[in-house]
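Record type: ASSEMBLY
Status: queued
Input:
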Amino acid sequence: MTGLAPPLDRLRWTVTDGLTLVGRELGRLRHDPGELVAALIFPAVMVVLFGYVFGSAIQVPDGGDYREYLMPGLFAMVSFSALLGVMTRTAADASRGVMDRFRSMPMARSAVPFGQTGADLLTGLLMLAIMVGAGLLVGWQPHRGLIPAAQAFLLMVVLRYALSWVGVYVGLVVKNDQVADAMVPLGLPFTMLSNAFVPTGGMPGWLRFLADWNPVSALTAASRELFGNPGAPSGDVAWPLAHAVAAVLLWSAALLVIFVPLSLRAYQRRGR
Amino acid sequence: MADPIVVAEGLHKSFGDTHALRGLDLSVPRGTVCGVLGPNGAGKTTAVRILATLSDPDAGHARIAGYDVVREAGQVRARIGLAGQHAAVDEKLTGRGNLRMFGRLSHLSRREAHRRADELLERFGLMDAAERQVTGYSGGMRRRLDLITSLILRPEVLFLDEPTTGLDPRSRSEIWDHVRELVADGTTVLLTTQYLDEADQLADDIAVVDHGQVIATGTPDELKATIGDRLDVVLEDPATLRPAATVLKALAGTDPTTTGADRLSVALPAGGLRLAGIVRELDRAGVAAADVRLRRPTLDEVFLRLTDRKELVR
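Status: finished
Output:
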């Protein structure tokens, strides 16, 4: 088979192997759709819980329907879940010896992280489509037309992809599926410490600073802006909220620049 | 050792303050089974990980089929298979799905990967479970799937890291049968185990590893011969235990172990003594023996002697 492949061959195998691993995730999904359902139930519960229970008592800053305000936040939350999903899957592979099997095979070395993040992108699109359906059901809709809406979805996908690389890295470092599973609940406060559910204006200064600079906030603000949903920041707000689209792109670029090389190195490191 | 396919020379590996390997040497002739035997923490798994290119040695080097495991890892990976203590397969996929995926990742064509998957499932008796998710497999089935996953590319060298740890006796002997078949096909097997009977059953040569070094090598019979035969004595009267022990010590030159209220066991020097002489000496000391038996030592006794552990008392 392959031993020392010339660069072009190596690239071809990276793509082929990556696609095989994407196929693996789809196969898992087919045999175990429960995983996807479980991942979706949570945001669906959030739609009901926040859209109807808490939302009835929350005032949207410049008026407007709370569920219209909420949906971009939930889209951002679903995008953020890429980090947790990829982290737990990577850690499970590392702790169960699957990663060692990959490493001991004559396959393209960077195919594993690329395959894993690529597969997450596909499942992410599926989840996003389902969330959009849920949003339309509860009365949410984009108001500024097709192009800005498409831009908003594109931003979600880009940030999701960048966050999935953080997941690969954390999963490779943790290497223990139980630890990774235990870290998942931390995702909730992280996404809630943002403008996804309530405006950050009422938070104490230091908390507000964290929330304003949370990439979830930037994505939420950018989506509200592009969908024409209420709550788009105006006046004196933090930079990432005032320039939300740029902030999302910068966040994504920064995360990719840092975590792609870190992940590739962590995957290829042979020591233990 | 005409044609060693696995060669390790002076492997060193430390993790922090722990010296997992301290100059491990190994040489496995093509087409044989080498049993690497050692207690937990002896460095067996570390050695296998280095040979399988998963880990780099701090010092020393190793070659598989002539290729260096560090500098020519790609060539090595194309020639080896690894099945470990954990069943390293995707539990969410079916048995067939796993084999197809790993076949594709081994760069077989789609058709070839599918063909090979079914061939292996058939040969190793997993065809009935082919379409079931691995989550529902028994421990023995998982281990078998793990084993055949490492056979997709017909490896020249197969590393089996404690392949039967935690399995019931029946599943163990099934794995043993499979290993014997593979060896009959010409595969070289390097097997780590802490079960001495496993090494006795499967290995052509045994390397006993302790504290990160090979402390003895040889065939199971050679290893047993190095420590001489054992003499087991059962006394008619437990009260004669002490005089009997004195006689045996004088004969064997080492202290006998008491293995029961009325029984003693002692290692005889290589070259041995005659049974008749032993009985005569016991008689002369007024000890009546109900049973006196000379036997080859078990591999357990060889192992305990070599690794300098306390003797087993049953």
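Annotation: Residues 310-314 of chain B have pLDDT under 50 and may be disordered.
Annotation: Chain B has two domains: 4-224, 228-296.
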